[in-house]
Amino acid sequence: MHSLKVSEVMWNHIEPIRCGEPLTNVVKTLLANHVTGLPVVDAQRRVLGFVSEQDCIHALLVSNYHSEGEPNVDDVMFRNPVTVNPDMSVVDLAQNLGAGKPKVYPVVEDGKLVGVVTRSAILAQLAKAGQTMERSRFADAED
């Protein structure tokens, strides 16, 4: 488990959000991919920000209430999000997770987005490793 890398548990099939994207499209993307947030990138896939469900809820509520027109992702994204390297150990990332920390991390290599890793993916790996350790202890006890 200690040697498992972020690159082995990240998702690289989700298309990131592009700058200037209307917020209603962002919401559709988040819902379609069952994620709580996604990185915002430029044309070269450099991470410029991060947008979450919570960001969208607040912005759309204010926009609808005040009839100010549709906001875009640039208006609400969090700039300079925490990113991780694909070679980072899953154990090291898990140790850094906690209350108030992101639920989704952009995975960046050579300055470009290569995927995202979620807390649920980390949790699944920790649970899987725990089951493996339990089976191993049970087998050792039988010997």
Please outline what is shown here.
The chain has 143 residues and is α+β, with helices and mostly antiparallel strands. Helix content is 42%, strand content 20%.
End-to-end Cα distance = 24 Å
CATH class annotation: Alpha Beta
CATH architecture call: Roll
Q: Quote the CATH topology.
A: CBS-domain
Global Rg: 18 Å
Q: Oligomeric status of the shown chains? A: single chain
| Secondary-structure element string | EHEEHHEHEEH
Q: Kindly estimate the percentage of residues that lie in beta strands according to DSSP.
A: 15-25%
What strand order characterises the main sheet?
1-2-3-4
Overall structural domain count: 1
Give an overview of the whole structure.
By secondary structure, the chain is α+β, with helices and mostly antiparallel strands. It has one domain (6-142): CBS-domain (Roll), CATH 3.10.580.10. It is 42% helix and 20% strand. The chain is built from five helices and six strands. It has helices spanning 23-33, 53-66, 73-76, 90-96, 119-142, and strands spanning 17-18, 37-41, 47-52, 78-79, 104-109, 112-118. The strands form two sheets. Strands 1-2-3-4 form a four-stranded mixed sheet. Strand 1 (17-18), helix 1 (23-33) and strand 2 (37-41) form a beta-alpha-beta unit. Helix 1 (23-33) packs antiparallel against helix 2 and helix 4 (90-96) crosses helix 5. The protein is globular and about 50 Å long. The two termini are 24 Å apart. It holds the Pfam family CBS. Keywords: CBS domain. It comes from Marinobacter litoralis. Residues 10-68, 77-132 form the CBS domain. This is Inosine 5'-monophosphate dehydrogenase.
